[in-house]
User: What shape does this take?
Amino acid sequence: MGEQHLHSKPELDEVTLSTQPVFDGKIISLQVDTVRLPDGNTATREVVKHPGAVAVLALNNNKMLVVEQYRQPMQRTEVEIPAGKLDKGEDPLVAAGRELQEETGFHSGDLKLLKSFYTSPGFADEIIHLYVTTNAQPGDMSLDEDEFLEVSELTLEEAYQYMADGRIADAKTMMAVYAWHLYTLTGQWN
Assistant: This one.
């Protein structure tokens, strides 16, 4: 994923004519692209550029490790699987292990890529690489200086209840719960 026109249909492609940088922040940047549409007309596209991220569905004794932290855009706390952005040039597998350890204190030598997906392809290029491990081992946390969170473990039933209650409302964690549920039914991480 991430390659331009990976499964593109040329008759639907837009051609970028120009790019105007608007904002360059610590994590994201924003640009406005002028594009030529398939019918020859032009339009503008606001695009958020993101370095990509990793997330980990980590199971310990058949319970999913989650962190609860405040999310400024939502103005509330959110229960999520451990996750974080990729550092420049960082291998996603390495980042997944790092984020799992930093946020939960757990570690695993058998992280497996479950799926990579785009979060909001209508306006952002952020891709999340979702990893899974069924063999998370406890250790020591090492949070970033601006991270404040609580770690807990949920059964599959509790995870579904958290989703019903709105305590889990982000796509990566919901996808992880559904993948875990499918695994319990099939024995496969597909």
About this structure: The helical segments are 92-104, 156-165, 171-186. The chain has a mean pLDDT of 92. The beta strands are 15-24, 29-36, 42-49, 53-60, 63-71, 76-80, 83-85, 112-118, 127-133, 149-154. Residues 10-49 form one domain.
